[in-house]
Amino acid sequence: MNPYSDVDKKILGEIYSGNEPMKNLEVLCDIYKSRWPGTEDDINSVKYMLEKLHEYGLEDAYYEPFKIPGWRRGPAKLEVTSPIQKEFDVISLPHSISGEIEAKLVDLGPGPIEIYEKRKEEIDGNVVMCSSARPLGMNRSLHRTEKFTRSILAGAKGWIFMNHYPAYGPPTGGISPIIPSVGLAYEDGSFIQRLLAREGEVKVKITTTDKNLEVTTHNVIADVDGTSGEKEYVITGSHYDGHDISQGAVDPASGAVVVMEMARVLNMVKDKLKRRIRFMCFGAEETGLFGSYYHTSAHEDELADCRFMLNLDSAGGESRKGITFHDYPELEPFLTKWREEMNAEMPMGQRTGPYSDHWPFFLKGVPSGGGGDPERRAARTGRGYGHTKYDTLDKVDRTYVRLAAANYSRFLIRVANADDWAPRRKTQEDIQAFIKKMGYDETIALTDKVKDYVRGWDSHHPDTVDWLERDSAW
Ligand SMILES: [Zn+2]
Description:
It contains 16 helices and 16 strands. By secondary structure, it is an alpha/beta fold. It folds into 2 domains: 5-71 and 213-417, Zn peptidases (Aminopeptidase), CATH 3.40.630.10; 76-209, 3-Layer(bba) Sandwich (Glucose Oxidase, domain 1). Helix 10 links the parallel strand 14 and strand 15 (348-350). Helix 2 (20-31) packs antiparallel against helix 8 (249-268). Residues 239, 251-252, 285, 313-314 line the site of zinc ion.
């Protein structure tokens, strides 16, 4: 027996007979490009999303502006200066400072945790290259920022992030404004590795011309009110900002258009909705989860009433549309029952990490989960074309966008309506214990450690001084 039979049919009929998400995706990607924080395309894309949400009947949809440390890219150069002369196509990593460094190259491969201490003497004062590959034998992924931070602590004065995927060009991804840092394609990185193996010593020169500056960006917020008038509510969201070198079509826009589609169809069945659902498109996720951190601090007093946060970053990408709960095993029986009732394939898992917009909510004790295929996520070896200029609209298949909207909208109305939904609220002690268990306590401590270390330097780039004065996001 499916008590939501009529609601499900209405939602599915709307999703599968319309094409709103793909139309929105085309506007977000082809017209507003990457929607990089603080640009004209950023604010114009926000206005577009609001206009559409208003058109869908969510008249009160609005945006909240906030200031963040932004960044503007300039041309970057990588040269081998000895024993041969050769120049390579590279791109700066977001938040790189402008500068020039010529020094010996130290190649750390995928950059396993123990290597930075072990090779500290070689690294000190030189340029480090790490690939985006996941080091062998780790039970968690080792994020770019951790490889970067550990390189700094070992004394690196320039940093190269080499793609481990062929044919996708140089990768991007935020780091901290400390040293000139660039992304390098797999083929060029491989060339340099061969040269290093043959010659024993290679000198490189990195030149960057970027600018760190304060900018204003935005969160888009649209509520569909429930009939009960209760304060308790549910949040779902995806960031809308992509990396500046790409359309950010799969990551994140495919998720943002799924969120908009769910707002559209759930607004149509709002007479059947008990508790409010808040739909959000977060700004500035890529460079530090700024939108979600801003929202959870500006709305902190409401979070005790938030019964669930479902993060749909990149949700329209090619995968099954299940849910990974963020260490809330008591929520599994709900999904087990509902996916049967919905006749939907929704694989389920338990895992979390600090690299998307659910994290600030998780830290405040809000029960949360993320969309996607838990099995595939566990087997993932990297981002593929993600965070390169090849994350373009043509990678998004309507089939998966629809499936995401179909599964998650039906799941969310059930979360909002269930009277027996009562996951245990994690205390701050529980959260800290979990972070420790996952090994993220060391990652988080590294952020403070690197600031203390860099403070000890004789001189600093002005962008580094600003960064040292800011509080860490986490
Ligand atoms: Zn993303």
